[in-house]
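Structure record:
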Amino acid sequence: METHMSMRRALVVVALGLALPYALATGAARAQGPSPLTLIPLSAAFNNPIGIDYHAPSDSLVMSVNYSNGQPYNFELIDRDGARTPFSDVAGLTNEVKIGTVREGPCEGGFTPGELFVGTGEAGVIARVSSDGTRVDNPWVTLPGETGLMRGALFQDRYCVVGGDLVVVTTAGNVWRVSSSGVPKGVAVVGFGIHLEGVTTVPNDPRYGPWAGRILTGAETIRRTYAISPEGDVDEYVLPIAPEDFDIVEPGEHFYGVDFGSKRLVAAEADQWRDKVGGVVIADESGPLWYARWDAAAAAFEVTLIATVSQWEHVTFAPPPILEVPRGSPTPTASATPQPSATATATPPPTATPTPTATPRRFKRYLPLSLRESPKDGRRPVTAVLILDLSTSMRRVDGSGRAKLDAALAAARDFVGRLDSERGDRVAIVGFNDRAWTAAALGDPRAAERAIAALPAEVAEGTRLDLALAEGRRALGAADVGESASTSGNAGAVILLTDGLPNRVPFGPGSTVPECANQECTVLREAQRYPPGVRRVTIGLGQRDDVLHRLLGDVASAPLDFHFAPTGAELAGVYARILRRLACDGPAFWGARCG
């Protein structure tokens, strides 16, 4: 897979609500921008919906539902009358189930209209459901060497950018294309451990500016949008958006979106999109719906907030109007600050008209430039201690049906496998249960891999988080941490993974910590013994009731250093994000980007 990439910091302006867009080239106000939307909440109740797309053979919508266990089924069709019926016998797919379907058109790429593609919750695995739902190929394709999940998005290239192939983005930062015959090809590595969300191809039309003829995807957690050429060059854009999904606005199609926060489907009929054709809709999981268009005169993308809900998942455009979507042209309810769709009605007050009252917000100007680099450039050496819970509860299976211990050790091996002693990376392995010990001293990652392989034999009862933290500090030992780390570039950290609450931890009178009234206090005291500058990262594995979130959050050095993984399937992505932060954080590196 191509690892060299081009990056661009784009010049961006955003207009909130009904603000007049600002013409950067001249500083003058232009004609009023796109009108806000009136979102129509459909009355049908849905059980934890996530993904949505158009199903051409039935001229209906298809959705993934029943998050997060996928029972009793994963997919259902919604017809023009709003009636819902199960689609296929697929069940039990966990995590966020994002889907991509094939539509009729000039660029079907050898696929059959109505076929549905979905990630399975296993790294690199894609399943295919036939157009009538009677056949399921699972796996259909396994992406070679892929460690990430397909919970970001899948999209069949109906705009002929990559020959009609299926485009897939993963939680490990990789972009793939897969032919109709099931042959995968790596397109680009956007960045090691970057969780990509949402994907579309963009028609090769000059009105889309530098996005034309490219794959468009984003990274919600770091608020980045990426435009990727078929050859693998990546342009990076700093927009005021945490992208969840991307869609091209086409004429004559209605908008449908999953408002997960309200467990409902919202819609906006085609008439409301007439002034937006030729732009791109970007859904932000936190609730905003953005409209982006290329302003050729200003040589910049203009980004406007057009609607808000409580929480977006997937959105789509589709031809069929569901019964509750009007065929007429309602007058949108205008507001300088768009309200959540819960307040919208299908028939807005006739006197409400758009009034441009908001003041545009301009973002810091970055001159467009190209930077050719390898993801390894600018990467700091990493010094880390992996602390792994080896209590007996780790042998239990998680929601995905896999033993938590197996998933944890696999993720730890993957983390260690990405380190390089020649670059100065060092790692130690610490295990704990009723005791804590160093299984591999700080040093060569290859020795750590051997130590991880031997850990299953050490499983025993007990969860002495206090001893785990103390041993982790000792294992870090003479590592270049604290104040010296900031000057040497050596990122010292302990990374503690556990699936449960502390037990057998001493506290109170007669113990070594008589001042503590509970076990949690003892654990926090041990965390406080770490010198300044050593990063403490914690990972809670399991159901929310199994993991004491507040304690692990308090043990962590900062809020972003606590991670929660409901099942082992998320662990590879969690460790990848941690490694990226250790290797890349800090002002010494361009845009905090490295591999």
